[in-house]
Structure formats: structure tokens, C-alpha cells
Amino acid sequence: MNWMTVLWPMVAATCLTLALINLRIAVGDGRKLPHLFFSLAAISVAAVSFFEFLLMQTESLHEYNRLLRWAAIPISSMVFSVTGFIWSFFGTGRLIIALPAVCIHLIANLINVSSEIPGIRYAASIHKETFCGVTFTAAEIKNGPLNIADISSVILVTIFILGASFRLWKNGNKRRAAFVGGSVIFFLLLGRGHATLIEEGILNSPYFVSVGFIFVILAMGMELGNDVLNTSRLARELNSTQQRMDLATNAVSLGFWEWNIHSGEIWANQAARELFGIPHNLPINFESFLALLHPQDRDHVSQAINRSIKDASDYDIEYRIQL
After folding, report:
1. How far is the CA of 111 from the CAs of 120, 150, 199, in angstroms?
2. CA-CA distance, 187 to 185, in Å (whole number)?
3. Distance between CA 183 and CA 223 in Å, rounded?
4. Which SS3 state, helix, strand or coil, does residue 119 take?
5. What is the DSSP string of 224-239?
6. Quick check: 199 and 147 in contact, CB under 8 A?
7. CA separation for the pair 191, 82 (Å, rounded)
8. Do 209 and 299 belong together in one domain?
9. How would you class 221 by CB atoms within 10 Å of its CB: exposed for 0-12, middle for 13-18, buried for 19 or more?
């Protein structure tokens, strides 16, 4: 066992753990699109780590090229999910830049996987190298005709993230723009730059794409965690405010109600339920509300509500209820 056999599995395990946690949040709440993109990004980084580890261990040129080709799939997924995360989490990115970047990267890598001859890059030969006291398999990498598309898509993604971070910074969220946006840009360029040095034969080391991106995953996860904690704190404060409001309104028998037009459901506080004679746990909808009114007032109330909705005017009306 050496540090390589420990580091890459740790990266994969960390990413998968964070992915499962955020996937549970995303499934539990359809509004948590950033958590869904984060989960996909973490799974993708774990898969990239798996391929990088296998590349270091393989003894066959054919196997090296097969792994190098299929590693493009989780890399494309990583680019897509990180771009989607920035777009959904920041809310400031321009899709006119993001969509072409993601599509170019995805199409280039799909062609690379499906064609008989690798279109992006391939290994002409493999040999053994030593890095920090550990021997691993290295390769002489040659670029294919689609390599320019791969690099261009990374440049477009960087421009997209830079623009989204700059606009988020101007909107006042400087910490998130610098911490998340800065981390993504730095390690995206570092990973691509390091890979280029390897592929040009300037640097003899294993691929460290996943090792660098674990810091991106951690930065994204920390910001998502802060949002979850803030949401939980606001929910507690809202619940405390609701309890105080209930005490005040019950003291003066003041009823509050709220009607969700789309679902038809009506929320009412305890004082309003007591005024209408509605049990505490009984669901209320618009039809059950009308049924509580005096028969002679139902049409009048219904017309007033429809008029208020149509004209966006105030709803102010008196009516009788059946006790």
C-alpha cells in the first residue's frame, strides 16, 4: 500500500458520501436543483478518480487507451453538472454561453467514445515512471482532431463561471462568488493545465483532475450546507413568530386565513377555525368554505372573490355564516 492507493479511493469515497447526502435533499424537495447538480458533480468526480487510479495501475497499452477513452464520460458529466450548479445556485449565469460550452464538450466526448479512432487524445505508448517514491504507469499522449473542441469548451465554461461570479459579486454576495466561483475557476484551469503538461510530455506525473476537484466539491458542499442551516434557522424563527402571533390573535379572537388559488386549499389559524366552527385538524378548501356560509350569501361572496382575482382589487365583504 502507498499514498496513491489511499488518496484516490479517499477522494472517491468522500465524493460519493457528499453526493448521497445532497441527493437525499434534492429528492425530498423538488426546488433543490443545486443539490441535484451537486450530487451529479460529486458522483462524476468519484468516477474520474476511479479511472485515474486504474490508469496508474494498467500494464497494457490497449487497456490504457480504453480507460482513457471511457474516462471522458464522467469528465463530460462533471463539466455539465458543475456548470449547471453555478447556473442554478448563483442565478446569474448566461445560458447563451453555458449551453454551447456543455454541448461542445459532450458531443466531442461522445464522438471520441463511439469512434474507432480516439478523436480527442490517445496513448501512443506506455512506460513506468516514479512520482514521489511511487511507481505508476505513464503514457506518451497524442492529441486527436477533436482536442481543440475539448479545450474550447473548457474555455467557454470558464468564461461562463467568471461572468456568473462577477454578476453575483456585484449583487452583493461577494463571499459566495469568491469562494465557490473562484474555487471552480482555479481548479478547472489548474486541472486542465496540469493535464496539458502531462499530455505534452513536459511533466511526468499521474492525472490529478479528481484530486483538484475534491476541493471544488468541498467548496460547493459548504455553501449548500450553509443554505440548509440558514433555511433551518429561518424555519425555527418563523415557527416562533407564528406561535407568538397565534397567542396574540387568540387573545382578541382575530382570525387569519390564506387561500392557495392553485391547490384550492385554505389555511386558517385557530381563532378563524373557532369563528367558523371548523375542527382543528379538518382540511379546508374553497368548496367547504362556501358551504359554511349562509345560502343567500354564497353567490355574492363567490362573485366578489372572482372579481377581486380578475381585477387584482381588494377583497372586502361582509357575509353571514351558519352556526
Report:
1. 9, 11, 20
2. 6
3. 12
4. coil
5. HHHHHHHHHHHHHHHH
6. no
7. 14
8. no
9. buried
Residue spans of beta strands (DSSP E) within the chain: 121-131, 134-143, 257-259, 266-268
Cell of 242: 407564528
Q: What is the DSSP string of 242-284?
A: HHHHHHHHHHTT---EEE-TTT-BEEE-HHHHHHHT--TT---
Residues 34 and 134 placed together within one structural domain of the fold: yes
Q: Which of 230, 261, 281 is the last residue of a domain?
A: 230
What is the per-residue pLDDT across 106-141, written as a single tens digit (0 to 9) for each?
888 888 888 777 778 888 888 898 888 888 888 888
Say what the pLDDT of residue 213 is: 86
Band of residue 218 on the pLDDT scale cut at 50, 70, 90 = confident
The answer to whether 53 and 70 have CB atoms below 8 angstroms apart is no
- Nearest CA to 78 among 183, 209, 190, 193? 209
Domain boundary among 230, 255, 286: 230
Kindly state whether residues 223 and 251 are assigned to the same domain.
no
CA distance 130 to 155: 32
What is the C-alpha separation between 215 and 75, in angstroms, rounded? 16
DSSP letter (8 states) at residue 322: -
Based on its alpha-carbon atoms, the radius of gyration of the chain, rounded to whole angstroms, reads: 29
Evaluate if residue 143 carries a pLDDT over 80. Answer: yes
Q: Are 228 and 25 in contact (CB under 8 A)?
A: yes
